[in-house]
Amino acid sequence: MSKILVGLKRVVDYNVRVRVKPDGTGVVTDGVKMSINPFDEIALEEALRIKEKGGATEVVVVSIGPADTQQQLRTGLAMGADRAILVQTDTPVEPLAAARIFLKLIEKESPQIVLLGKQGIDDDNNQTGQMLAALWDRPQATFASKVELEGAKAKVTREVDAGLETIEVDLPAVLTTDLRLNEPRYVKLPDIMKAKKKPLDTVAIASLGVDTAPQFKTTRYEPPAARSKGIMVKDVAELVAALKQKGLV
Amino acid sequence: MAAKILIVAEHAGGKLNPSTAKCVACASTIEGAQIDIAVFAADGAAVAAEAAKIQGVKTVLTIDNAANAEPLAAVLAPQVAAVAANYTHVFGPSTTFGKDLMPRVAALLGVGQLSDIMAAEGAYKFRRPVYAGNAIITVEAPQDKKLVATVRTASFQAAPQGGSAAVEAANVSASLPSHTRFVERSAATTGRPDLQTAPRVVSGGRALGSSDNFKIIFSLADKLGAAVGASRAAVDAGYAANDLQVGQTGKIIAPELYVAVGISGAIQHLTGIKDARTIVAINKDAEAPIFEVADIGLVGDLFTVLPELEKALG
Question: pTM of the prediction?
Fold first, then answer.
């Protein structure tokens, strides 16, 4: 009975142009569309494909967040996950705390694979999977673009700066996904109906007995420095002249 | 207490990656900091000799071990954590190497990690981008904990050469796992400049239309002595290799000259290039967002503009 645990983070939708609040206390999230973090959607898709090929018997989606996060978990169930766990909290948790929470769930669920997105597109931290693997004392295969299971091992191709790197890890292991691992499926209406009947357990974060106190304090949010407006040239000759003027050619 | 900063060297094929000197540059902005570099390798002598020449470095530690032949995070992390015992800060580059390794180090040390430092305002106060660079946050870290962080390499010029640090072999006792094994690496050996560090970059987008058409990007890049980049759309469509992707989830670069060809300029792409000194945009669509950030914009069909440009450049 091999199980895959998948993390789904609720984030501001990929297509929303995020703006900093005028008072610098955060970004505008009121009335903004929220979605599953795109990398996590890829993680879930990979888990479902592994299960469909007989490599796993159950896919459990997990999230940490406010009650509204149930929406994203229901979407995960509609995609095909078997059940969901929401670790409920109204306070954002740092990656180390998220890793500690996942470790608690791992102790209970004993998964063969934990699949997470490589980074949340909100905080852009890119940490939770690596931290979880460390705390769990298990292998990590980050930035995966190809996953091949061979018994109790996984061969994972990773997107690295130099190109592609392949490593072999013993299971259980933590895998984090890069963009080109797969293309997540679309959710169909009957699946949304079916997902309503699938189990979604809510766990209060305090009941896990995990240290979730934040270590870092964000004191200010600012918009990025704007680039000054450039010039438009009308043809190649003008372009070359402009480049020459800047000493670039 | 003055900051004592350990920087984990990134290297491959016996050569130090320039990201290491950028980490030194970041660490050097912290007043009074002592900066050491650790080289984890099978035989780190050549890399250590290079690292010792970076200005501002006091000591280069070599941790030679056959298990360190390939940079596997699970193997390196316990060793980095052991060496970190004598330091207040541990920095690595925000490259795939550092992103893979540093969070694992932090968790072993029982502390959080700060990602993508773009500026240090003190030993425990930093600025970093979030939301694909749509917001820059100021973060304070606790002074009673070790600070593990990655440095956003595009935000720093490499620290200059001319130093003469001492090189010392360090003994590290850590039990290393065997559950993770290196299989192979397929590096694109193009003979072209490295995208991450090249002073000039020519990038192509979806408008190229095919991998065959993408060759005109390589051709212009060769003319300019530039590295080649690509938008996510071009990589997803299979026109260019994954390691050429520039943007939020690809490479963040800061060249002197960035030429964006047939790239519309999605916010995720702009995140990767906004530290470029001069951005040139060539696009058929006059409304493309890339023109909002371009220093020089040319509206036109890339398939006529590029051959003309190459010719004009002689």
Answer: 0.93
Chain A CB within 8 Å of residue B73 CB? yes
A178/B187 Cβ within 8 A: no
CB < 8 Å & 24+ apart, contacts of A51-58:
A51/A4, A51/A80, A55/A2, A55/A149, A56/A2, A56/A3, A56/A4, A56/A112, A56/A113, A57/A1, A57/A2, A57/A3, A58/A1, A58/A2, A58/A3, A58/A4, A58/A82, A58/A83
In terms of residues, how long is chain A?
Answer: 249
Chain A, window 72-131: residues with a beta carbon less than 8 angstroms from a chain B beta carbon: 94-96, 99, 118-119, 121-131
User: Which among B96, B236, B248 has CB closest to A161?
Assistant: B96
Q: Which segments in chain B show pLDDT lower than 70?
A: 188-190
Tokens of A35: 């979605």
Say whether pLDDT at A1 is over 80. Answer: no
Task: Check residue A214 and give its pLDDT.
Answer: 96
Is the peptide bond between B193 and the residue preceding it cis, with omega within 30 degrees of 0?
Answer: no
Find tokens 């079916």 and name the residue.
Answer: A194
Burial classification of residue B1, based on how many CB atoms lie within 10 Å of its CB (0-12 exposed, 13-18 middle, 19 or more buried): exposed
A 10 A CB-CB count for B304 gives 10
Q: Are B238 and B203 within 8 A, CB to CB? A: no
Check residue B71 and report its DSSP letter.
Answer: -
Angle at B141 between CA B135 and CA B143, to 5 degrees: 160
Contact criterion met (CB < 8 Å) for A169 and B181: yes
- Of the candidates A191, A154, A193, the residue with the CA atom closest to the CA atom of residue A176: A154
Look at phi and psi of residue A7 and say left if phi exceeds 0, alpha if psi is from -120 to 50, else beta.
beta
Tell me how close the Cα of A63 comes to any Cα of chain B, in angstroms.
20
Q: Pick from B6, B314, B294: which is nearest to B147 by CA?
A: B6
**Within an 8 Å CB–CB cutoff, is residue B171 touching chain A?**
no
Whole-number Cα distances in Å, B97 to B51, B104, B213: 17, 12, 32
Supply the pLDDT for residue B187. Answer: 73
Residue with tokens 């946050």: B137
pLDDT at position A138: 98
Token duo for residue B114? 């700060």
User: DSSP 3-state assignment of A21?
Assistant: coil
pLDDT tens-digit series, residues A210-240? 999 999 999 999 999 888 889 999 999 999 9
Q: Please list every residue in chain A whose beta carbon sits closer than 8 Å to the beta carbon of residue B135.
A: 18, 20, 27, 221-224
Hey, is A6 helix, strand or coil? strand
